[in-house]
Amino acid sequence: MASTHHQIVIIGGGTAGITVAAQLLRADKKLDVAIIDPAQKHYYQAAWTLVGAGDFEFADTERNEADLIPNGATWIQEAAAAILPDDNKVALAGGDELSYDFLVVCPGIQIDLDGIEGLRDALGKNEVCSNYTDPNYTWEVLQNFKGGTAIFTQPATPIKCGGAPQKIMYMAEEYFQKAGLKDKTKISFITPGTVIFGMPDFAKTLMQVVDRKGIELRFFHKLTKIDGPNKTAYYTIMANEDDPAKLYHNKMEQGERFSSPTEVAIPFDMLHLAPPQSAPDFIKRSPLVHADGPDKGWVNVDINTLQHKVYPNVFSLGDSAALPTAKTGAAVRKQAPVVVGNLLHVLHNKTGSLDPGYEGYSSCPIVTGYGKMLLAEFKYDNVRDSDKLISFFVDTTKEQYSMYLLKKYGLPFMYWNLMLKGLA
Ligand SMILES: Cc1cc2nc3c(=O)[nH]c(=O)nc-3n(C[C@H](O)[C@H](O)[C@H](O)COP(=O)(O)OP(=O)(O)OC[C@H]3O[C@@H](n4cnc5c(N)ncnc54)[C@H](O)[C@@H]3O)c2cc1C
User: Fold this and answer.
1) The CATH fold of domain 114-274
2) What is the whole-number distance in angstroms between the Cα of residue 230 and the centre of ligand 1?
3) Distance 15 CA to ligand 1 centre (A)
4) How far apart are CA 235 and CA 229, in angstroms?
5) pTM above 0.90, yes or no
6) Is 52 a pocket residue for ligand 1 (Cβ < 6 Å)?
7) pLDDT value for 37
């Protein structure tokens, strides 16, 4: 077993890892930074919503990881298998070890295809699709759809980009309308949640969009099983615990039935879902995570400084960190400079407290059709936190063409040319 040392080791060369590495090396090009990531390709996942709707090329969301590793950083093309923070070491999948002075943990979120019975077998065929795993297949499903019931749904676990399950639905509705299928199509958004969106200003507009598009909403429904060949989704009803069937009084649609007193079986002609998600398994097993409580399994950092609560030479950001805000690339953009500033503060043994500068900023660009978008920006506790320049010119709580242009052209440009280069 070989052992190598680096001053700063970053686990994960995705949005967060590349951004942090680039900013560190811009601050001081003599730093010894290593990035551990087995992936050959890096994806701009935020555009997968548009790929699924046929309005963006998948190839334009993909780059070679090798081309994004900042000059001066060492790329270790392997998966991290375990973190040993008491020894300042990371074990690699191939058996070698890396030791570090400082560690940045950002391996993203794990897609759990076994979290719903039947999902692993059903996904990618039988008109069961997900922009989270294969947006090209979503686009194929939309193009082949001939009418019937289109279900859009999401799991009860945390997910990255919480708005993505409904964005594709709004685009699909417009696509079906243009294809002349609207009269023979029923679109349902079926969710374990209780509201369409957590912030009232945006929820109000989205409820108007839902009504305008004739979308049926079903809250309190947790997806528990998918039968792909028989095109049926099974949901446990979380409301009216004494008699869940009350939710369906006089409302059973054709083909629907109760498969148990608490479970309803709903036939579909296409189904788009966000799969269940969780922290990567090696993260869950590490001593760095919350052992219990609602944040169990996510990396236990201070929510403002992003420094680990037990190991001061460890920082975490991005989807794997236990932060009570939406898991997005937009959040990473505001987290990265705080991680970099605080890591350098500790590295240089500076006195004084760390910068508590991350206030939970995240954003959700909610496309509501081809050429229409709301831009929901917020910080901890669902407090609005709109970009001052943008909100001076446009009301981002309303559907805007300009915001769609930002999503389709502005944000991808910024991602590849500024953010991943440590410039934004
Ligand atoms: C359909 C969809 C739509 C989205 N829409 C938006 C949007 O509109 N706006 C927005 O801001 N965000 C959006 N997001 C979310 C955004 O892509 C993520 O929040 C962001 O990429 C998180 O960055 P990250 O670095 O934490 O994880 P990632 O960018 O996913 O990177 C994780 C990296 O860790 C690596 N890794 C995993 N396991 C290991 C291991 N064991 N060892 C070493 N490396 C490992 C992976 O290979 C990967 O390169 C969307 C995501 C999806 C899927």
Assistant:
1) FAD/NAD(P)-binding domain (3.50.50)
2) 33
3) 6
4) 17
5) yes
6) no
7) 98
